[in-house]
Amino acid sequence: MTHDCSFLEELPLADDQFSFAEGRRESHAADWGAQQKGEGVVPDAVVWPASTDDVSAVLAAATEHDVPVTPYAAGTALEGHAVPAHGGISLDLTRMDAVVDYRPDDFQIDVEPGVLGADVDDYVGGDGLFFPPLPSSGDISTVGGMIATDASGMKTVRYGEVADWVLGLEAVLADGTVVQTGSRAKKTSSGYNLTDLVVGSEGTLAVVTEATLELAGRPQQIRGGRAIFDTLEDASDAVFDAIRTDLDVARIELVDGLSARAANEYLGTDLPDAPMVFLEFHANHGVEEEIALCESIFEDHGVARFEMSGDDAEMDRLWRARRELAYAIQSYDPDLEPLHPGDVTVPISEYPAMVREAKALADEYDLPVPCFGHAGDGNLHYSVLVDMDDPEEVERGEEVYSLLLERALEYGGTVTGEHGIGQGKRGYLEDEHGTGAVEAMRAIKRALDPTDTLNPGKIFPETVEGERVRDA
Amino acid sequence: MTHDCSFLEELPLADDQFSFAEGRRESHAADWGAQQKGEGVVPDAVVWPASTDDVSAVLAAATEHDVPVTPYAAGTALEGHAVPAHGGISLDLTRMDAVVDYRPDDFQIDVEPGVLGADVDDYVGGDGLFFPPLPSSGDISTVGGMIATDASGMKTVRYGEVADWVLGLEAVLADGTVVQTGSRAKKTSSGYNLTDLVVGSEGTLAVVTEATLELAGRPQQIRGGRAIFDTLEDASDAVFDAIRTDLDVARIELVDGLSARAANEYLGTDLPDAPMVFLEFHANHGVEEEIALCESIFEDHGVARFEMSGDDAEMDRLWRARRELAYAIQSYDPDLEPLHPGDVTVPISEYPAMVREAKALADEYDLPVPCFGHAGDGNLHYSVLVDMDDPEEVERGEEVYSLLLERALEYGGTVTGEHGIGQGKRGYLEDEHGTGAVEAMRAIKRALDPTDTLNPGKIFPETVEGERVRDA
């Protein structure tokens, strides 16, 4: 799968905008997900475009020379999105990191794809604005990456996902055509919604070169804290009850007892190793009433401790276990590693059952499976911890992983709430959507990228090893 | 453009499910927009499917026989969407009007496309739920139609548009393939977002046979009323100021002095013929604080009267002029008719300029142009009133109409906020989106409907009279 990329030398790119050097190429072989699995494919070249014109020139030439192009930014994806699976060019967008325009009166900002999510918040914070769907990884992941997977985060339960906050895009198609999607008007019904088609398409339909994001006004009242429960059943039932009661909550995160134990050990805290629900309330009026409503619902489910605060430092302390959870789980047992960490999401009414099922699978297969998630969305992040040197244990872990995804579909949910399909979950796409819908997706891919130049080997299941959409 | 539809007799349809009778066909020749213009095309047959299987069988056979199919429901569209422009079959979905499933704990309902929007609210109201993006025509227009144009309404300023509340669809492609889009999970990043591609595609990509709608909980506090201003400038500036201040308002409707006069005459009321802003506030807490904030902002812009109430009957009275506005404008002058009534939408910061421009055009061309709209979204509905028997006046009216749409684009807006492109605004699609984006839309259309069976003659500009997308 080696591709001759010498045509790059003919393009109007500066010397420091492309490289065939081994070191540069190797650093673009994988994203987090692939790295964890020891997987990755070294691209034949790396290109750092500085403008939409650069992106257009590279894509047009790559399509002409039948060379695959895989967009790359922060490399924080979990499902191998940034792996140049069929070789070719890794298109590194991190140098396109400008704020192009900012219109606070319209709650709008235009940014290039390489801008870090948290930098958007920093940029607009002085005007009392923020970008609500920022994922937990917002300080290290880019706007382009968030758009690629239609990311979401803790505040999605109140504010929605990335797609809800992208008003329009400038994007480049495989043949180099630059398209503008959407409108600066808040509402349009003009033509097909290309914006929401490109959002979440994981770099397989177009390369985003500019995004018009909507912003929200920061609430006047913010309170947060945590609740501790005796059992996971109580905690998940309480979340379901809160959501069905239409509680106005801005973050509602479930953490199971095993994760709590990991956090206690990692942080040296002496909280009970018990299920917790972390909460944050946003409002301009009546935040205390919502907290009181939440407490009374949680009491119906036997909450053991319910601690809220309006003080920043105290909120920070109460949230610490949740904030450090990813690191805590990673260091839980040095001999164990998380197998395919990711998330599923189910309708909220099925959330308690999904959580129960995850723990039952952990018991049945005798593996630690710490679970946590954006519970208010019905979201569950799992980590099946296995000894990677023990093939039998890895195999058991793989079974647990598959069964988790299958259960999510049985409950009417999705195999990926916010991390995309990438390479990792391609085998589940048809299980989730059926043949008809997947064939329609393939038809769209072929229509916009007939040569399968853009990020081949992602999203679509391959029926034959190494097959690309254009061959299917 | 007559098509032989005798193949319908071979399909598994009951006798009352299809008709070649002239009366039935003629009643399916136009929608409101086409009727107003005295336009329309009589289909060769009308079919009333009762199930997804019926729709699939009809579409598969129609595609095989190269017969166009135009979906029809309530026929309330403004832009000729339901006109079978190239003849063939009018597919009347009004008999598919069942509520298929209702899951109040998940805030979800599955309905067939022929269900009236207001019937959804009636169905779920007992549980304290409602369907927020319901357009003003909700009591006479169907869910299928709202999905076709990605409709919106007065409450969109707070709750968003139809697309924001459609979680998934069952839809039939031109070749009869039934696809399921989306997920019952609130959040998914699995595969391409086919749901939001079909929403707003005006029946050109697929026929929706079932929709999973999300519902919201009814707010505990509702207050509403109206504000009266001396000048339209003050009124539109006040709206802009309220929105940029992040006022939490659920409806904020601007009505110009001319429309107010029409309403006064129609209703026999003695309000001043002055610009008005109609408001409704929804909250669980602090609704009075938001009203106070609004009043203080409006006072900065010289509001003359500010009347709010929490009493249903009084709110009803205060809102009466806005509620009856469409009828009032229609009966404003029996010699005049509205030419191409519809809407444009611009960024809120440009709203005062757009409103000023509309009135300036009315003055310049010496025509009455009553304007009103969902001001908080930057939305402006216009009616250019002309004597249809006076060709010179009609021509002046056409110029005003064109200039209004062009101005909206110059302000960074859209030529259609909520009524779609249909037949009427096809000439503006490329002006708004550019050639690249329109060509991408065409490619998607060809990929999913290569024979151009579904609603030909809509959305896409024809380069040659009578040309279809497949020929372009």
UniProtKB/TrEMBL annotation, chains A, B:
One of its GO terms (molecular function) is D-lactate dehydrogenase (cytochrome) activity. Its EC number is 1.1.2.4. InterPro entries: FAD-bd_oxidored_4_C, FAD-bd_PCMH, FAD-bd_PCMH-like_sf, FAD-bd_PCMH_sub2, FAD-linked_Oxase-like_C, Oxid_FAD_bind_N, Vanillyl_alc_oxidase_C-sub2. Keywords: FAD, Flavoprotein, Oxidoreductase, Transit peptide. Residues 39-218 form the FAD-binding PCMH-type domain. GO terms for biological process: lactate catabolic process. It is an enzyme of class 1 (oxidoreductase). The keyword Cytoplasm does not apply. The keyword Flavoprotein applies. It comes from the Archaea. Belongs to the FAD-binding oxidoreductase/transferase type 4 family. This is D-lactate dehydrogenase (cytochrome). It comes from Natronobacterium texcoconense.
